[in-house]
Amino acid sequence: MTTATLFRTPAAGASSIGVLSWATPARSARIAIAGATVSVPPIVLLHLDAPARLSATTTTISDFVVQTPWGEPLFGLTAGALALAGIAIARGLAGATAVRSMLVGWSLALILAAVFPTNLPGTPGDTSSTIHLMAGAVIFGLLPIVGLAVWRRSRSVMNATWTGWVLLSTTAVSGVLSAALILNRIPGIVGLDQLSLPPGLLQRAAGAVEIALAAVIAVAVLHLKAGDGGRPDPRVTRPHA
Fold first, then answer.
1. Closest-CA residue to 181 (of 62, 87, 65)
2. Which residues in the chain show pLDDT less than 70?
3. Using only C-alpha atoms, what is the Rg of the chain?
4. Cα–Cα distance between 153 and 151 in angstroms, integer?
5. Angle, alpha carbons 206-106-31 (nearest 5°)
6. CB of 100 within 8 A of CB of 221?
7. Cα–Cα distance between 202 and 187 in angstroms, integer?
8. DSSP helix/strand/coil, 50
9. What secondary structure does DSSP assign to 120-187, as a single string?
10. d(CA 223, CA 36)
11. Considering the entire predicted model, what is its pTM?
């Protein structure tokens, strides 16, 4: 028996086990679903409060944020809720190190996009706008990859199920919209005319599908946990008799 074992009280041991037992992958997935759901009202309020001169078809969400009263706090609430969802999904994916790392990176990019807003239209870009642009590319580029990875991981559990079909479909739509959004933006970054796709409408479609994809991935994690057959979480240390 080690010194650490001698001095660890039963109450302390039971407390640590209780905390870890509460933070199960299933509960983490439910937190992720709640985070994705809670992210919607602030971004809706942002659009309702935006100046009437702004067009949702041609003006990006980032430009809405910097030109709308309380735009940055409202966007911050949406980004924070989605970041929480990303961390919760990562917590629920035991053993998927690469996917969990991508989810953490996605969550970090959301926080950076909220902390570093873009520049006002007509003003020169600065460090904040550059960070915001790069974070946006990560946000839209990573989650479809995560969705595909989770779908591949869950095929044995959700093969030919409604959840599996929705996950694959949402991932595919998100990937197409995100790729179109990023490709549409690249010419403008290098000083050329942007493609003919309306940037505001494209970004909103891609963003809406990303929120839905985050929730669908969380549901898939719940199904993965159910498919484990009730095996205990290996990250929870059990007391010895």
1. 62
2. 1-23, 188-196, 225-241
3. 21
4. 5
5. 90
6. no
7. 16
8. coil
9. PTTS---HHHHHHHHHHHHHHHHHHHHHHHHHHHHHHHHTTSHHHHHHHHHHHHHHHHHHHHHHHHHH
10. 18
11. 0.82
